[in-house]
Amino acid sequence: MRKCYFDHVATNPLDRRVFDAMTPYFMEAFGNPLSLYDLGAKAKEAIENARGQVAALINSKASEIIFTSSGAEANNFALRGIALARQHEGKHVIVSKMEHHSILNSARFLEKAGFVVTFLPVDKHGIVEPEIVKKSITKETTLISITHASSEVGTIEPIKEIGRIAKEKGIIFHTDAVAAAGNIPVDVKELGVDLLSMAAHQFYGPKGAGALYVREGLRIVPLIYGGIQENGRRAGTENVPAIVGMGKAAELAKDEMAARMEQSKKLRDKLIKGVSGIENIYLTGHPENRLPAHASFTVEFIEGEAMLLLLAAKGIYAASGSACSSKALKASPVLLSMGVSSNLAQGSIVFSLGKGSTEEDIDYLLAEFPQVIKRLREMSPYAKGWGTKGESGECIPQK
Amino acid sequence: MKFVENVKADVTTDIVYMMCPMHLLKLQEKIRELDEGQILEIMTDYDGALEDIPGWCEKTGNEFLGMSETEDFYKFYIRKKARRK
Q: Which residues in chain B are contacts of A85 at CB distance < 8 A?
């Protein structure tokens, strides 16, 4: 059976060239980067080389990159670290409803710790309007965090415009670029961000490696206390092979980005065009300002999970909502914030392409997906519509 | 402890929230970069620096000029020693 992996926002396979770059650091050059002898020096040199490669991907200085264990750690670090470092100036933080759980839950932690958090609404495409950001700023605001691009609906946010507002008001601006960095051009200077999170496995690097860009001169309270790794800002013996892998993956992503984007966009457009022909199916996210490899939809009258299972039985791997929400069988908060009804939000499906995706894969998906929908709708009690609302708000199927 | 005001530093290094022993490592690194007689200002929130920095100066022969305090961190002033002729 044909296998088609369309879940590249969940994770990616390691690039063979990345794997080759990492392997010497498991068993040969295994030293601790803090050790003073040559084995340590070799590991230290490898980390610093990777730091330069990651910095080059986002046009920062190498010294502005702090390696972490994941994008989620980078997001936790940014939110808590800046909010705590600047709490004497104010205790108001702004995030959007489009954010990943690592931002939303960090924001909720801050609320419990006495901060005031504004969760910004978004429009029907999931766009955070810069004007709304501006209006939400108070004298107490010290930090704004808005995702660069949504892994769930693919929308790319107006980061540059929001960055300009934050700068005008003297507020620190963080963006979660986990879905964007390595996949679309990301330039911290052009975007005007003070902090930016990324994760290696989103661009064919290893899992267990992430990074936080922190603009030079910015104070940040550590998330993990201990020794002097990462310039005394993030403790713990470095995961040298993973960091080396992240560096190599960043270098490859930078070199190959234009070609990868062009290929993905072509296939994605074909996918969207093909799927849009199916009845009662809607594209989610922004129609143009979206990640080049990302196609997401809501399908009326059936559940995302059921679609995933039947598609998987055909060798097609996709996602329904974010990896976290999907597992919890919860209507996606991102879709709800975009005004999608809770019924329709249950029928969410996300196809994300990668550099290995082919035209044949898309053809196979376009042949199988309509059949899966047809079969599920035949079984669905809501096949004729969502019906009427019961007393407790539940849907009563139309007979 | 000697408290000072209005010291004009030639170089400032801000290591607030960076973990111990960054205050000593940065101190060493920055002093190495200074010319003889120049003054380094080092900002840190680490309480242990109150003992460590004057102690380091005594051991290395650099001159500890004193410190000042803000609500969130300390500022230490160190003059790089002149080399013996």
A: 16-17
